[in-house]
Design goal:
The complex is a heterodimer of chains A (510) and B (267). Chain A contains 14 helices and 22 strands. Chain A is an alpha+beta fold and 510 residues long. The chains are: A alpha+beta (510), B alpha/beta (267).
Chain lengths: 510, 267
């Protein structure tokens, strides 16, 4: 059974302005000519101050001097609806965008997918909660035809009482009490019908069809027929774009990068819905904080790239990573907008929550391990979080390789094949100095925090001739010993074979 | 009464195990935590549960840095990596004391010899103390962690206690081995760790080894330090110091195979 759900967002421009941060003071959306702007929407505090739509901005500012006036931007509204449609695609394969004067919104077909989400009430709850996370308020309308659902939703968005019409049989009864204005016919038609004493849809439906079509046009009759399910009403299909881009305007300039978290959360929720619709994950979400142009030196925007080891779509996890990144970032100029873009989608493998507790020998390459390395990397950077590899080289300082644990390398490496060299004559130390430390010498004995006693060795290492004088990888000629000092420290020391035969400390048998 | 004053009394009580007489100090407290063998039988015998407790904070206080604390932990870390569990190493802060050992890196060939698979380990070199505590905390939140070994920074005794207490509570959520290596002066400060070991050079035994004093454990106190040999070398120094460069050569470098990378470079 097909069932259509209309999501009507009343006063969408106002909702968009308040989405990034709730505005406690009076706020109004203005449009019209630049020199004579008119109020088109205003919030509760503004209405309480006596401001009403169609008022001049100058008059409104006289009523409330703290009024924040935001110019209306139709492009943003269109983008926001598009973004919302991408998000809603996770619930339905049939999504249509509607724009209109009192409310804009979406119409989706939910009858086909309600079983998937555990019943109509569960689906309703999910959509309502999801919209709340995105920062939108919407009126819901259910009906057996898309036009009727939209009419019911619009009526509710403008504060009227309306009943759902979940089956075709209920359509007449549900639409009959609604006022004609919800149809959004042109003003002339509505005025003419009002002059005839017709104010509700029910009264118009009761008129003779032929006479109504002759007087008001066939398309008006067709509109009513489509709403009542007497005529098919094909909907333009919405196709999901392959890339994600969303934007939030910040009501106030943001200086502290931590304050970006709230709008970022809205964007991440939207991304999560989009990715669910695609059944994909994002490998590299890019946030961009847009700055107001204050000076020549300030950049237009700051890019914040979240590099992930594995594709992710969970808004909570992404928000956690972003929070870690933001602690390392300071904005060069106040931000006025935040956008999120994902250029490339990656196949996503959801980790199912297990019924049983995690097994005793959980695999180390679990998602958990990846998350840990991502978290550490996001905050500390790749030079501070790394892995160490043994390298096949006789020279001790070249037998170690530092592998930064960056996202481009994925998670921690799989086991490397053990070095092909035979075991060395002397045991190797557990800690090594990156640069050997020259030891103070009391001829011929060196000391390190006291006198040294040699307890094993020597092991001669003469190697590296094959690097042919590379200054960074010189040939070494050394005799290594294990030494112990009076403090009980066991050290790995060597003596240069070449003059002046200096002693060096190279490692610790910790 | 101070613990030191108790020692003669405990000695006078005689060895436990007299028939029909129950000594309160007889059994070591059995811990609820699972334990992993430390790899040293003499130490296992003194640790409640017979090894390092899992999911509990264990504190090591070496008298001098590098006297054998890593070798003491190596068998347990090796067992964790053999089981495929991850180890996280929180290395000393860069801003810490300017001791050469604080700047040293774990050496993969040495780790491999000790049985520790470096590919199972993540190393973190924090810049400041705050980063170190943060990294420890994040690591302890990971469910699949096998072991964490951290050279933890110190500030005031009170702040350290609070931070350690937090770690201890976090550690209890999973089964990881959690070792905190702290400077020796922290021995006097209170600590929430269930096991605190003081490591010192053991000069009494004929072979100088590692003397492990158990400052705190569940059960009766330990009176004598446990002497362990964590390094394989004999106690005696090799005869004399080399005088001239080439006289003491014992390995002919030409007899050893040339490594693969060298062969490629030369070929």
């Amino acid at each position: 059974m097909t069932l259509w759900l209309a999501l009507c967002l009343p006063a969408l421009p106002l909702q968009l302005a308040e989405r990034a941060a709730p505005c406690p003071g009076p706020l109004a959306i203005v449009e019209g000519p630049r020199e004579r702007p008119l109020i088109s929407f205003c919030n509760g505090p503004a209405r309480a101050a006596g401001i009403a739509p169609a008022m001049k901005l100058a008059a409104a500012q006289a009523l409330a001097h703290t009024l924040t006036a935001v110019p209306r931007n139709p492009d943003h509204e269109r983008d926001a609806l598009h973004e919302l449609a991408c998000w809603a695609y996770q619930f339905s394969a049939q999504v249509t965008i509607r724009t209109g004067a009192p409310a804009s919104g979406l119409v989706l077909e939910t009858g086909g997918s309600e079983r998937l989400f555990g019943g109509p009430s569960e689906l309703h709850r999910r959509i309502r909660r999801g919209l709340g996370h995105l920062g939108y308020r919407a009126a819901f309308g259910y009906a057996a035809t898309p036009r009727a659902a939209w009419l019911i939703g619009t009526a509710r968005a403008s504060g009227l009482h309306a009943a759902d019409a979940r089956t075709a049989a209920l359509l007449d009864a549900a639409l009959a009490p609604l006022p004609l204005t919800v149809l959004q016919w042109d003003a002339d038609t509505t005025r003419a019908l009002h002059a005839l004493g017709l104010t509700t849809i029910g009264q118009v439906i009761g008129l003779p069809r032929d006479a109504f079509a002759r007087r008001f046009g066939v398309e008006r009759l067709g509109d009513l027929d489509r709403a009542l399910g007497r005529q098919p009403d094909p909907q333009p299909a919405f196709s999901l774009p392959a890339r994600f881009a969303a934007h939030v305007e910040l009501a106030a300039d943001v200086i502290d990068s931590g304050q970006l978290m709230f709008p970022a959360h809205r964007l991440l929720r939207s991304l999560e819905g989009f990715l669910r619709g695609h059944n994909a994950g994002a490998a590299e979400p890019v946030f961009t904080a847009h700055h107001s142009r204050r000076g020549e030196r300030t950049p237009a925007s700051t890019r914040i790239v979240l590099a992930l080891a594995a594709p992710e779509r969970d808004a909570g996890r992404l928000a956690k990573l972003l929070a870690e990144r933001l602690t390392r970032i300071s904005l060069p100029a106040p931000a006025v907008g935040l956008s999120l873009a994902v250029e490339r989608l990656a196949p996503f493998q959801a980790l199912n929550a297990s019924l049983l507790p995690p097994s005793q020998d959980s695999v180390r390459d679990g998602l958990d391990w990846l998350q840990l390395s991502e978290t550490l990397h996001a905050r500390l950077g790749s030079e501070r979080v790394f892995q160490l590899q043994a390298v096949d080289d006789h020279r001790p300082e070249h037998a170690i390789r530092i592998v930064p644990l960056g996202p481009e390398r994925g998670g921690p490496r799989a086991a490397v094949p053990p070095p092909a060299l035979p075991p060395p004559a002397l045991q190797r130390p557990l800690m090594i100095l990156s640069a050997p430390l020259p030891l103070p010498q009391q001829d011929p004995r060196p000391g390190y925090r006291g006198e040294l006693a040699l307890i094993a060795g020597p092991e001669r290492i003469e190697a590296g001739w094959w690097d042919f004088g590379d200054p960074h990888r010189p040939t070494v000629h050394r005799d290594y010993f294990v030494a112990r000092n009076g403090h009980g420290q066991t050290l790995w020391v060597y003596r240069e074979l070449k003059q002046p035969r200096r002693w060096y400390l190279h490692g610790f048998f910790c | 009464m101070r613990a030191a004053n108790l020692i003669p009394l405990l000695r006078a009580a005689g060895p436990p195990g007299m028939p029909g007489l129950w000594h309160a100090d007889d059994p070591l407290a059995t811990t609820a935590a699972e334990c992993t063998s430390s790899g040293f039988d003499a130490l296992d015998a003194e640790l409640p549960g017979g090894g390092w407790p899992q999911g509990q904070l264990v504190e090591l206080l070496p008298e001098d840095p590098g006297i054998g604390e890593l070798s003491l932990l190596a068998p347990a870390l090796a067992a964790q990596t053999r089981a495929g569990r991850a180890c996280v190493w929180i290395l000393p802060c860069e801003s810490g004391p300017n001791d050469p050992l604080q700047q040293a890196l774990p050496y993969p060939p040495g780790l491999v010899e000790a049985g520790i698979d470096p590919s199972c380990s993540i190393f973190v070199r924090p810049a400041v103390a705050r980063e170190a505590w943060w990294a420890v905390e994040q690591s302890l939140r990971a469910a699949h962690l096998g072991a964490l070994i951290g050279w933890l920074p110190t500030s005031s005794a009170q702040a350290d206690f609070r931070a350690l207490r937090r770690l201890h509570l976090l550690a209890q959520r999973h089964r990881a081995l959690v070792f905190a290596i702290r400077p020796p002066h922290c021995a006097d400060a209170p600590s929430p760790a269930v096991l605190r070991l003081q490591l010192a050079c053991d000069r009494r035994s004929p072979a100088p080894g590692l003397g492990v004093t158990i400052l705190k454990r569940r059960g009766r106190p330990l009176i004598e330090p446990v002497a362990l040999q964590v390094h394989p070398w004999p106690s005696t120094a090799i005869a004399g110091w080399p005088r001239s460069g080439f006289s003491t050569a014992c390995h002919d470098v030409m007899a050893r195979p040339v490594p693969a990378c060298a062969a490629a470079a030369a070929g």
